């Protein structure tokens, strides 16, 4: 039976989703992005060549795979243009394979201006956003004043909508944030020009997915960001503005819950976070520096250094439940090579009490102290190992501990950035 798999980040993003989406895309007819926007940075390494994708689904380097951008994605046409042109210049066929939902909310220049002005105004309480206008674009969608992809192809409708929207946003920009207002005529011309570049890609993505399902084709849903950045279930307000958890698959692409046969949760063998907000296991010592150096932990979108720490099994096990994770893919195991000892956080201390669940009030996250279990490390090199039995025994034991403490079986392990550097324990797509 064909299967549809959702790939989601189980931590704070950058778990290595792009690499795994690319790998599994070989098995599918279509790969779908369903939330987020070009705040994502998904890295693929194939025969030493690195590609970072922001908006285009990570199936694009597998020939023949259809790449769909669902209605839940906030689309920046200018960012998309750069990405499409860069790939096409490398000989990757994007134009005939990329399809975009008519309902995608559009990220306009004013969204980026508002995002940056607002971050500046928050000062020390800034979220540390990617500055890509993601939050303001989702706000316009929810307030029912946003521009959608289909509007870009209808000049009269776009002009009348933009008149009203700019009346509002220009007032806020000028009088609240003291930023230069935008010229409506220029915004309109830009939007029409960019819209025309992608006119042929407009698609009923939801309907296309139903067709593929009915024809028994395999589909892959590609999550962006991580579960702890979810607008509802994450470390609010230090989150992104979409549902990064499993519900986003259905609302962001227009399929039923029965369209998700398997949820693959991607987790690093440790933890990273980029931007502000609670991170109970964050390390400020040499160990943190070593994780950052060995893992090359620099943001793929903004180039900011990622904060690093030990694996947090309290946080990850929560997201196993929130997402209904079928199996885990543990990435960057090789980064832990050479450590004397490794730690996994299995409880928190809050106001002198030991708790094994996340705190009731998200505002309490800041006061949490991690409680660790310690595991022996290994000195051998695990980079590129493709069989579980070839891993050092202590690495096998660490994976078993991850499975036990996080509450989901480890079905895949990534041992390097290359497409081929994986251990497959149980393959998410059925082989029959
Ligand atoms: P994503 O946003 O979840 O797709 O992850 P990113 O691409 O932002 O960050 C993951 C980084 O780790 C990228 O630079 C990958 O090339 C790299 N990577 C992925 N898996 C592995 C692995 O198993 N080992 C090592 N050393 N690097 C990996
Ligand atoms: P991928 O898909 C890691 C973080 C930002 C910030 C917060 C809100 O590569 O895993 P936003 O610009 O979305 O309003 O910023 O979310 N963030 C990410 N962190 N990986 C990402 O994407 C992220 N996308 C957004 O750093 O803390
Ligand atoms: Mg990333």
Low-pLDDT segments: none
Number of helices: 11
Task: State the CATH class of the largest domain.
Answer: Alpha Beta
How many domains, as an integer?
Answer: 3
Q: SS-based structural class?
A: alpha/beta
Beta-strand share of residues: 15-25%
Radius of gyration: 22 Å
Physical arrangement of strands within the biggest beta sheet = 7-6-5-2-8-1-9-13-17-18
CATH level-two architecture of the largest domain: 3-Layer(aba) Sandwich
Strand segment count: 18
Largest sheet composition? 10 strands, mixed
The hetero compounds bound to this protein are: guanosine-5'-diphosphate, 6-O-phosphoryl inosine monophosphate, magnesium ion
Distance between the termini: 6 Å
Q: Which homologous superfamily in CATH is the superfamily of the largest domain? A: Adenylosuccinate Synthetase, subunit A, domain 1
Overall 3D form: globular
**CATH fold descriptor of the largest domain:** Adenylosuccinate Synthetase, Chain A, domain 1
Helix content: 25-40%
The overall average pLDDT, rounded, is 96
**What are the secondary-structure elements, in order, as H or E?**
EHEEEEHEHHHHEHEHEEHEEHEEEEHEE
Verbal overview:
The structure is a single chain. The protein contains 11 helices and 18 strands. It has 432 residues and is of the alpha/beta class. It folds into 3 domains: 4-101 and 201-262, 3-Layer(aba) Sandwich (Adenylosuccinate Synthetase, Chain A, domain 1), CATH 3.40.440.10; 109-197, Adenylosuccinate Synthetase, subunit A, domain 2 (Orthogonal Bundle), CATH 1.10.300; 266-424, Adenylosuccinate Synthetase, Chain A, domain 3 (Alpha-Beta Complex), CATH 3.90.170.10. Strands 7-6-5-2-8-1-9-13-17-18 form a 10-stranded mixed β-sheet, with helices on both faces. Strands 12, 14, 15 and 16 form a 4-stranded mixed β-sheet that branches. The radius of gyration is 22 Å and the shape is globular. The mean pLDDT is 96. The chain binds guanosine-5'-diphosphate, 6-O-phosphoryl inosine monophosphate and magnesium ion.
């Amino acid at each position: 039976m064909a299967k549809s798999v959702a790939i989601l980040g189980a931590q704070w993003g950058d778990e290595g989703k792009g690499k795994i989406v690319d790998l599994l895309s070989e098995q599918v007819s279509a790969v779908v992005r369903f939330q987020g926007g070009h705040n994502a940075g998904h890295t693929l390494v194939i025969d030493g060549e690195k590609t970072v994708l922001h908006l285009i689904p990570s199936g694009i380097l597998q020939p023949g795979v259809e790449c769909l951008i669902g209605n839940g994605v906030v689309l920046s046409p200018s960012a998309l243009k750069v990405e499409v042109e860069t790939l096409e210049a490398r000989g990757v066929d994007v134009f005939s394979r990329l399809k975009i939902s008519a309902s995608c909310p559009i990220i306009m220049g004013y969204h980026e201006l508002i995002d940056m002005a607002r971050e500046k105004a928050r000062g020390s309480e800034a979220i540390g956003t990617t500055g890509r206008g993601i939050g303001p674009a989702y706000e316009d969608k929810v307030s029912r004043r946003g521009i959608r992809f289909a509007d870009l192809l209808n000049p009269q409708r776009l002009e009348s909508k933009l008149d009203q929207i700019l009346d509002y946003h220009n007032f806020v920009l000028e009088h609240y944030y003291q930023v230069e207002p935008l010229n409506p005529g220029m915004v309109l011309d830009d939007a029409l020009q960019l819209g025309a570049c992608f006119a042929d890609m407009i698609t009923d993505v939801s309907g296309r997915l139903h067709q593929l399902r009915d024809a028994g084709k395999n589909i892959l849903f590609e999550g962006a960001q991580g579960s702890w950045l979810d607008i509802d279930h994450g470390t609010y307000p230090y989150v992104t503005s979409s549902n990064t958890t499993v519900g986003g698959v259905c609302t962001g692409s227009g399929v039923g819950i029965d369209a998700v046969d398997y949820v693959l949760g991607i987790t690093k063998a440790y933890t990273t976070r980029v931007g502000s907000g609670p991170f109970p296991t964050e390390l400020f010592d040499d160990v943190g520096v070593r994780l950052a150096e060995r893992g090359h932990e620099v943001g793929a979108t903004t180039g900011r250094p990622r904060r690093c720490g030990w694996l947090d099994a309290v946080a990850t096990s929560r997201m196993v439940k929130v997402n209904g994770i079928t199996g885990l893919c543990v990435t960057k195991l090789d980064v832990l090579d050479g450590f004397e000892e490794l730690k996994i956080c299995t409880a928190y201390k809050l106001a002198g009490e030991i708790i094994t669940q996340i705190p009731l009030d998200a505002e309490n996250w800041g006061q949490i102290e991690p409680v660790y279990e310690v595991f022996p490390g290994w000195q051998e090199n695990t980079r590129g190992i493709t069989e579980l039995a070839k891993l050092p025994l202590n690495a096998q034991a660490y994976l078993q501990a991850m499975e036990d403490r996080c509450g989901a079986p480890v079905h895949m392990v990534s041992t390097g950035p290359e497409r081929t550097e994986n251990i497959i324990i149980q393959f998410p797509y059925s082989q029959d």
